[in-house]
Design goal:
Chain lengths: 430, 435
Amino acid sequence: MATATPIFYALPQQTVLDNGIRLIHFQLPDTFSVGVSIGIDVGSADEPGQWAGIAHFLEHLVFRGTEHFPTSVVIGQAVENFGGEYNAFTGKTYTQFICSMPLPYRSTALAIVADLAAHPLLRLEDIEEERPIVLREISLGEDNSWQRVIRALEQVVWPETTMARPIIGYERTLVQITAADVLAFWRAYYQPRNVVCTIAGDLSFDEAQALAVAVLGNWHGEAAELLEPSMTEELLPRRVRWEEMPDRQETVFAIGAPTPGWRDIDHGALAILGALLADGEGSLFARELVRRSGLLHQTGMLTWINRDKGALGFTGAVRPDVLLLAVRESLRLLTKITSAIPERDFVRARGYARGEVLRLWLRPIDVAVQLCHQALLGSEELGPNKELTAIEAVLPDHVAAMLQSYLAPEHLRLAVAGPNPDLASLESLL
Amino acid sequence: MNPMTTLDLPLHQEYQEVTAPNGARVLSVRCRGHLATIAVGVPVGMRHEVSPRSYGITTLLARALPLGTQRYRTSAEFAFALESFGGVFGQGNDQDSTQVFVSVPAEHLEEGILAALELIARPRFPRDAVAREKRRYRGQLLASWAIPATRASDLLDGLLWGNGPLGQRAVDLARSILHIQWDELVAFHRQAYGPRHAVCVISVPEGLERSLDLAVRSVANWSGGNVDVVLPLLRAEARVAVSRMPSDLVYLLLAVPTVPRGHPDADALNLLSVVLGGSTVSRLFREIREKRGLCYDISCRSMVAATTGALLIEAGVSPEGYEEALTAIGGELRRIGDDVEGAELERARTLLLSSLAMQSDRPETWAQRFCRDLLILQRPRPFREIAEALLRITIEELRVVAKRYLRMDELRVAATGMTVSRTRVERARMRLLDQ
C-alpha cells in the first residue's frame, strides 16, 4: 500500500506590476542559487506562415546584444563572471529566457534576462551572423531520429494547424526573414502585458517584488497589433507519417493522439496515465515490451499539453525488422489496459507520479521554469501542492476514462523515423 | 578578487564515514530537501575486461543487475517495490567502476538502501531475461554505430585507448558480447563484485548516523569479490580516424590524452577546458560558432578517470567547413598556452565553483560525487578541498599545463559525415604540426 507524501510546500505568491507583468515567486529555503525566468506568451504556433521559425530565431537573436549588454560576449561575461548559467527555449505557445545565479547576484540575473526580452538590439549584422547558426541547428535535427519522429508526430496529431509546424521553422522561410520582420514580431509580442516573470530561491516575496519592480518597472509597452498566425505549408491529415532515415539500424516510432488544451485537462490523471503506460521501469510498456518480450530497446511517454491544444502518446525504439510487431503489440497492450487497470499498477503509477513532482520542484531554476510554464499555459493554481493534490484525487476510473477518451483507436496516429517501413501494414493496424 | 571568495559557498559539508566489518566503506552526507539518494559502487569497470572475448561484460553485467534479485525476483517486482512510493533507480558503468543509484522520499530511506544493495550484491541474473538484455544491448550498439555523432565518439576512443576494452567500437562490441555466456557473467559478478572495495554513499536531509547504521547492517551479509585486476594501458599509434556516412553535418571530435583523477594537473586541466569550451564566452564558442558560424554547438570537457584522462572537444560542423573548423580549433589549442589571460582564469574558476555550488541544491549531487571519489581516490573530496585547489592555481601554472598537454603531436581527430575526407583531415592536422 503506497503511503501518501505529506504536502509541505510553501505556496507560490504572485502579483501584477503596474505595467502588466505578472510576477510569481516561490521561496526555497536553504538553496544556494536563485532561478529567474522571463516568459513571453508567444511561440511557433503564433507565427504567420511566411515567418515560420521567427519566434525561435528571435530567441537566438536577443543573445547577440541588448541595450545594456551590447554584444554576446558582454552578455556571457555578465552572467559567467558571477558564476551564472543562462539559456532560453521556444515552445509552441511561449518562449522562456532563464538564468540561474548565486543568490547574492539575483538582481544581475533578472537584469540580464529582462534586457534580453525588453531591449534587444536586433541589428542587421546580428541577423546575418546568427542565421547560419540556426541553419546548422536544423541540420543537427535532421540527423537525430528522435527529433524527426517528434516532427512527424506533430504533423499527424495537429494537421492543418500551426501547431504542426516545427518550432525551428524551415530553411526556406529562415533565409528570407529580414531584420524588419524580426523587429515587427518582437514589437507585436514582447510587451509587458504578455510577460510572466518567475523568481525562485531563498528570498521572500517582498524581496522578489522589490527586485522585480526595480528591474522591470520601467518596461513600458507599446500598442502593437498581434500578428495573425497562418499556414503556408500543406500538412494534410493522415494517420501515419514516415521520416526516411535509410541508413539507421534502429527505428523510432511514436503513437499519439490529440487532446484538449491545458485548462481542460485533468493533470493528476494525466500524470498517473503516463506512469502507467511508459514512464518508469514498472510501466506497462517497459516491463512488457522492453523486458519481457525484448521487442523495444526503450520506451517513454510524450505529454505535450499546450495552451489550446495538446497531444498524448508514447514512443518506442526498435530494430527496424520488428517495427510492425512492436506497433501491433503496443496497440494490443493499450487496448488491454484501457479495458481494465489492475489496482497494483494504479498504486505504482500514482506513487511514481508523486515522486516525479518531488524531484521536479527542488532546484530554483527548475521551479522558476515550471512556474512560468504553468502560468503561461493558464493554470489557475500554481505550484507543486496543486499537482500533488490533483494526483491524490485521482481514481482508477478517471484514468480509464482518459484512456478511453484520448487514446481511443480512432484518434491514434503513428509517426516513424528510420529505414523503409511497411507503411500499408502500419496503416492497417490503426 | 574572485566573486566566489566573497560568497557564502556551501563549503561546510556535514558527512560521516565508517568501514563495515566486511570492508565496505559507508558514508552519509547531509543534503537539503526531502529526498534521499543512495549510491553504491564497486571498482570494476571496462578496464577490467581482461580478454577480447569478454569485452562488454561489465556493461552487460551492469545492465543485467535490475533484471531480478534474491528479494525481488523480476525486474517488474523490483520496479514496483520502489516506484510505488515514488522512488527511482538506475545503474551504469564506466572505465573504472559500476554504480547503482536509488532516489527515494526521505521517509523511505531504509527501503532505498536495501534496494540499492539488492541490485549490486544480490542480483539473480534470470537466464531468459539476461538473454533478452543481451539482444537489446546488441541492438542498441548497432544502432549507435549507425549514428554519425556516436560513431565519431567511438572512433575517438579507439585513437585514445587503442584496441583494448576502452577503445572498442560499438560494432565490435556487438559481436563480442554474443560470446559472453551466462555462466561467465555470473562468475564474473561473484569474483569481482564484493564488499572489500565497495562503497555506499547516502545523502539525506537528516539522520546521518542512522543512515550509516542502516547501511552497515544492510551490507553485513555481502561477501565475496576478492579479485584485484590491474591492466596495462594500451597505447594507440594512429592519430586520425574518419568514417564517411550519410549525415547533414560533419561530426568532429578531437582529444589529447592527459592525466588521471587525483593528478596534480587535473584541476588546471579542468579550468583549461572551461576557458576553451565550457561556456558561451569560451574561446571555441566565440571563434567557431559566433565568429565563423560553422557550428550550432561546440564544447570542451576534461575527462579524468582512475588511470586515464583526456581533454575532449566535440562539434557538429558544416559539411563545407570542417577543415576550417579543425584548423581553427587546433589554432586555439596551440595559442592558449601563450595567451590565456587572468580574466579567463577567474571566470573559469567562478563557473566551476558556482556550478558545483548550484548543483548542491540537488540532493543526489554529493552522493554521486563522493561515491566516485571513494572508488577512485579512496577518500571523499569535499567542496572545501575542491574550492581551495581551484583558487590556488595561478595563470602561470595554467599556461605551463596547457603547453605540457595541448600538443599537436598528441592530438587525435575523429570525423564522420558525408563530405569528410581522410586526406583532408590528415592534411589539416599536419599543418597544425608544422606551424
